[in-house]
Write a structure and sequence with these properties.
Number of strands: 0
CATH class: Mainly Alpha
Helix content: 55-70%
Shape: elongated
Low-confidence stretches: none
Order of helices and strands: HHHHH
Mean pLDDT: 92
Number of helices: 5
C-alpha cells in the first residue's frame, strides 16, 4: 500500500519503507492513504522530499482506525479457515 500511494510522489531515497510498514499495525488501507497524504503535506510545507521525518510527523497526528480488539476478531475469522 505504501509503495502504491507513494509511486507518483517525490520520495527521499533514504525512506525506510520496511520499518514504516512494520509500524502500521492497525492501520487500514484508507488510514495508510491518509497517512501518506499527511506526510506529503508535511514535506511540501517544509520544502523537502517525503522522508522518515515527514512520516514521523504524520504518525504523531494520524492514528490507526482499527483497534487491537477488531484486529483480533478478524484474525479469528482467518483461523477458522
Amino acid at each position: 500500500m505504501l509503495t502504491l500511494h507513494l509511486s507518483s510522489r517525490p520520495v527521499d531515497a533514504t525512506l525506510d519503507l520496511g520499518s514504516l510498514a512494520t509500524a502500521l499495525g492497525g492501520y487500514s488501507a484508507s488510514d495508510i492513504r491518509f497517512l501518506v497524504d499527511e506526510a506529503a503535506r508535511d514535506a511540501f510545507r517544509n520544502l523537502r522530499l517525503i522522508d522518515d521525518d515527514a512520516f514521523a510527523s504524520a504518525l504523531a497526528r494520524v492514528g490507526p482506525s482499527v483497534s487491537p480488539e477488531v484486529e483480533a476478531l478478524f484474525g479469528s475469522f482467518e483461523q477458522r479457515g
